[in-house]
Amino acid sequence: MPNEAPDPTADVRERPAADDVRRIYLQKDGPMLVEGPVEVQLEDGGVATSDRFRVALCTCRRSRRYPWCDTSHRRRRRDR
Amino acid sequence: MSDEPTGPMLPQDRGPVSAAMIGALRDGGPPAVGEAAATADPYGDDLQLALYVAYELHYRGFAGVDPAREWDPELLRVRAVLERRFLDALRADATAHESATAALDDLLVEPVGGDGVPHVLERSGTRSQLREYAAQRSLYHLKEADPHAWVLPRLWGRAKAGMAAVEFDEFGGGRAERVHAQLFADLMADLGLDTTYGRYVEAAGAEMLAVVNLMSLFGLHRALRGALVGHFAAVEVTSSPASRRLAGAMRRAGAGPAAEFFYDEHVEADAVHEQVVRHEVVDGLLAVEPHLERDVAFGIDATGFLDDRFGERLLSAWQAGESSLRRAIELDLVRVP
Ligand code: FES
Ligand SMILES: [Fe+2]
Ligand SMILES: [Fe+2]
Domain spanning B98-332 has what CATH number? Predict the structure, then answer.
């Protein structure tokens, strides 16, 4: 079966991964976390590579080091 | 055991407590501290240097000092008194969040137009201010991630795996030239600083000593493992945006490629480390040891409190047109490329 329906109650962090599965962690406000090493094909040409054990891919498009997250997704506050 | 043949020199004392500690290491006898330990300013030069010297026995020791003194009961007894004073002061003075999440949430919002040290250095940092900053920060970065490795045997499951993964990254992912402490030494060389371990202890004020002592304190005590994890989370969460500003400061000052690379690498690495530490290490620890919630929050809050004090020392000196170093002469001795 190519796709299984999402299980809304499961948490992969609580069970071992199958050997041939690469885990990806999605979140609403923040980067997509992917187990490294990775090669990222960019839309406008060019490839970004990283051999880090895990990489944070920017999903907000605000990063100045795209495709890597640089925490630019954070909420901002004028407090001083 | 014989004395260490090499290693950092014992520093000069800064008052009666540090004099007793350093004298004991120099002479091989017990530290004659008397009442001074119980009355010393918990954030002052004297107490912080005495603690720093006591902790260094667990890292690289001192030239001419028997490495077995690491477990000398007399030294440890005095150290415990100093640690108690330091911890009591931090518990009284630092912000006290109810939970780890509440403490971290405050760090996850970026101030607009902030006025911390990275902001100021990015906007207007001079080369000599960058050198002062790096010289003092070298007390930590030349042993970057070392105090945190002590927590590994005290964690299990997700927390241990996450912590070990981040530490592996800090230690270069298996490549000596990429160890973060080495990357910082390369930054120092770009800035014309001496990369010898311990070289700038005399130049560093009590505020910087306290920043380093906090990590050693949390790292060496299993009872403070929650605080160590909180401390590490605070460092990783705040590092990425600060590193972006510091990389900009290095670029603007023409500091050199290694100086830029240290902070560029930390922008990306710590954006990942933050996620792993929050979701795996903090959440993983609290899933199995929920009673450590307050300790994790304390580690986060104490870290912010001491970082702010260090920042205030730098900025107030610079605003007055002065050096932030305890001994400005220390930097003048070093060649400028
Ligand atoms: S998701 Fe972090 S910078 Fe875009
Ligand atoms: Fe690092
Ligand atoms: Fe890090």
Answer: 1.20.910.10
